[in-house]
Description:
- Chain A: Keywords: Cytoplasm, Developmental protein, Differentiation, Meiosis, RNA-binding, RNA-mediated gene silencing, Spermatogenesis, Translation regulation.
- The structure holds 2 protein chains of 2 kinds.
- By secondary structure, chain A is α+β, with helices and mostly antiparallel strands.
- Chain A is 31% helix and 25% strand.
- Chain B has helices at 24-27, 39-54, 68-73, 89-95, 104-107, 147-161, 195-208, 245-250, 272-305, 328-335, 351-356, 358-361, 367-374, and strands at 6-11, 31-36, 58-62, 81-86, 115-120, 135-139, 165-171, 211-218, 232-239, 259-265, 341-343, 346-350, 386-390.
- The radius of gyration of chain B is 30 Å and the shape is elongated.
Amino acid sequence: MSGRARTRARGITTGYGARSPGDLTATSATPGDSQASGIASPGDSQASSIAASGDSQASSSRSISQPHEVAVSSDDGGRSFTERGKVRRDLVDLSVSTREKLAHVKDCKAGSSGIPLRLVTNLFSLDLPQDWQLYQYHVTYSPDLASKKLRIALLYSHSKLLDKAKAFDGTILFLSEKLDQKVTELTGETQRGETVKITLTLTSQLPSSSPVSIQFFNVIFRKIFKKLRMYQIGRNFYKPSEPVEIPQYKLSLWPGFAISVSHFESRLLLNADVSYKVLRNETVLEFMTDLCHRTGMSHFTEMCQKQLVGLIVLTRYNNKTYRIDDIDWSVKPTHAFQKRDGSEVTYMDYYKQQYNITLSDLNQPVLVSLLKRKRKDNAEPQMVHLIPELCFLTGLCSQATSDFHLMKAVAEETRLSPVGRQQQLVRLVDDIQRNQVARIELETWGLQFGSQISLTGRVVPSEKILLLDHTCQPASAADWSKDMRACKVLSSQPLNRWLIVCCNRAENLIEALLSCLRRVGGPMGFNVGYPKIIKVDEKAAAFLRAIQLHVNPDVQLVMCILPSNAKNYYDSIKKYLSSDCPVPSQCVLARTLTKQGMMMSVATKIAMQMTCKLGGELWAVEIPLKSLMVVGIDICRDALNKDVVVVGFVASINSRITRWFSRCVLQRTAADTADCLKVCLTGALNKWYKHNHDLPSRIIIYRDGVGDGQLKTVLEYEVPQLLSSVTECGSGVSSSRLSVVVVRKRCLLRFFSETGHIVQNPPIGTVVDSEATRAEWYDFYLVSQTANRGTVSPTYYNVIYDDNGLKPDHMQRLTFKLCHLYYNWQGLISVPAPCQYAHKLTFLVAQSIHKEPSLELAENLFYL
Amino acid sequence: MEVGNKMEVAEKTIPCSSVAGGNFEEVCPEKVIRFKPPLYKQRYQFVRDLVDRHEPKKVADLGCGDTKLLKLLKIYPCIQLLVGVDINEEKLHSNGHHLSPYLGEFVKPRDLDLTVTLYHGSVVERDSRLLGFDLITCIELIEHLNSDDLARFPEVVFGYLSPSMIVISTPNAEFNPLFPTVTLRDADHKFEWSRMEFQTWASQVANCYDYCVEFTGVGTAPAGFEHVGYCTQIGVFRKNSGKLAEPFVSQQHDQHVYKAVYTTSYPSLQQEKVLKFVLVGELLIQVERLRLRHQRMLREREKELDPKPGDMDFSQAPHLLLGEVFTEAEKARIDSSPQPFCEGEKFYIPLRRLLAYPKLHRLCVDEERMRSLIADSVCLSSDSSAVVVDLHNSWDYWPEDN
């Protein structure tokens, strides 16, 4: 059964890898071997942790692990301030102050160009008295009390603290008022009449901006949200009592909020955004049965594993969620496990006794979940067995996400317009302010929760699109396809020696396609010659064989007309032509070519992609800086082997920023950080030198794919790699100046522009560099895309390293310009083009190729 | 289901501070009595067993404290009204949300409504909202009452509230010598009774308000000390006149002296919206199963006509591992209902067929109601007698594809 053990090991590593790179190094040293053997023997003492699946009774809260940082049912006194000993990862980032080292933005990081615009945000003021401080006390008991509950009860009932605002997790006490002495001794009496001495020692006085205070505020708000009858799942809060149902797909959407309290540019603010939790209205057992009917027995276990591992389930008998790490087919509900107290009981009897639940299917396997470690010293993750019949699936599985109709139905419900979003926010504020308990909680701490923050942003001027003999000012920057119709692209190679591989059925589509390609290619300046057509059987292997047979170094491009979107066609072709035999390739679905009335736009898109793949350039924007190299870096994990990190690196190699050097490196590392950046950048600089006979004077790198808590690693590990490449290449004389910008597409922040009383999406080119930003960073928000429906989400830029010393205004505008240069889309995109190229490249490699593409293609955008 | 009320005598050195001196050492030195499961759990289990046996609809726990017992009781499908009363308002405030429905209960709701309410108030005050209950529990409550309150207690609980059944538990003082501490088990206890004292009091009360009472307990004494009796003594009172309470209630004046601190209602199939959601969900699962079964049948038939050599044998239908097992009666009901059928690429499943499957049958809706509930969620045939779906959809997985 080594196969299963391997799967488990993988499951373990991904689980931790996805969460925190720090943990991973510890667990991956022994890739789950010890755990795997633990699992292999059913019903061993390890399994006693199943009891954990059980109650959230107070008596068990001390020993029972909870998969999430803060339990849903944590009670008032029981909240733990460090969230199970860990500081939240986004708060870790905040301790990395990069701005203080950047002299040119120390005093002001705001830009100036553009038209000022009033914006409403989803930030809410959280005011505190001027001299507000949080007093942190360490509490000891003599004799020592083991029970956290008892410790809390004893302290809370003490008259000295009775009417004070306090929060206590059993060891650390927070007060909003200072006690008279540094060390205070109290005496309490237990119910048994024992006298206990309680010693409170002041350990620190914290200003509201300190990380501990921030974490504390988050705890306060979590408590408030619970009072509003919302349930915490992960870090967000949901209202299952007001579900939106999509019955056709057996889905429920629970509305809720993602919230975060933190210190922004100048003050403490609450950030709240609407969020939906997707719930599948079926148990894991029902899902499995369905799958079994679908796939037949021969593939069943394999499919189960594939579809279920990694999903989050919710159990029926408590409010906990678990990640499925494995399925153990050898354990059945009739098997016994050892309870915490040592006695043995079968799963079936346990659920009957504990929860009055009768299991209907005694043949079901058990789901295995590894709990996040909660104690520092406890090296082995705890394991839990869950009964499929008692678990509900949350989120969408891969099968569902590839279902276009389903995703559309979900989007229809979750994609809120600015007006809808604003309504939800207003209602939330109203709920908090009207809830008496919430109000009292805030008041006792001196917090004043109130108004929605407005700020002033700027709309930077729109850009002109430069074509070969034409400059156009697009009517809408979101889509200039109409504006550039019949315009010549900057440069293109004629396509003369190429192949089309298709199956017999699709043969009749070819003539129409070729004629359309010629019709759109002519005006573009892209000449399409007649291809060699190869007909093959409708099998992935047949396509590959034909390609292997007919492709020679002389061939410029291979087009494949695929009969279906089955992954194996695409993957095998791309793998062969990107790496084994590097030739640009273009895959087209036969179905796409049969759409009536769409042919011209399909052909335009194909012609543009082929132009790029042959090394052509489509359009440009005005770049005032000469000799500037821009770079995009993205990182993701390989779809098949989660131990492999795919790093995409795409750098411009001409000063017009129209030609690119693309490189992708696979590295076997635990952390989501790149350690190949020196090689990549040196390669790019050599290319630049080859084309421009000089080195670029400036390099600006946009780094995407940075998770919460990784900022420090990027700064301390990746930036030095880049710097050393720059220094070595420049050989001291005139080394390029470097800037590194971290790009984040996903953030909680939203901006609305207001006309009259109607909120709407802010216009393209909106920049925000005050109030919603952070004092310790050189950062800004940029809206560079539109959302036809729904609310636009701004992209967040954080300049963590900057030798270039560009004015903030120039940095912002340059970033905006770069969002115009993605050749796969005739319009603006949400991130700078090099980031999107890097993303597209890593996606292709992680999903389809699984190895490094050949460097021979590095100067072609072969992955578009 | 009875969990063994075993008791364990653990060898353990007693920390000096907790030995308050006294006669325990004379009895069995260096030994501390630990119950397994813990005594409080045994008390709760006793109540749970009662609920299991008698299936009360309305249950109140007087002196509910941190609401632990209520939390255990809320899982019982028979209970529709669950009330907790306590004098400590802060405790009710901070524990209320433990009684809110589990997230899973929004996905698979209960059959019957359930409302949970916590009241702040004293058990010796009369509140008409507690009238007409099937079971009232007073677990370790009476020993906390001072003599005035204790005197008023029977009159309120037995006389005024007058539920069908009352459970009263209290420490058995005769057991105390086995503990290391001398006096009372809790600083707030006003008294601890011997068996004789409790039984005398209880019998008098029962007599006075026309109840019968049985005595039992939880927490058996260690071997050799059985004569002291249970650690916790319990009286179970049952009203002799049976269920006469309810008509009587309506004639009373509403008397609301308790303050409602927390109240929550559970989603249940009695609510139209919830019923619809569950019905459509179960129906779609069944439709999907039948559709796939039909597909498989067609495939097998094809294979019989044109057997390919080397083809894998899929005819061993996979339903042997997982899935519902029908009883004879269910099978008969399904077999006698109209069969699903195919017309071209459309697959029809008669509503009556669907209603025959146990998971839909148990929802107790008739064909007409079902039609109206599902009409805007699924596609019906022109005469509205059947659900129509495409026989094949693009996401069907074909094992042969690989």
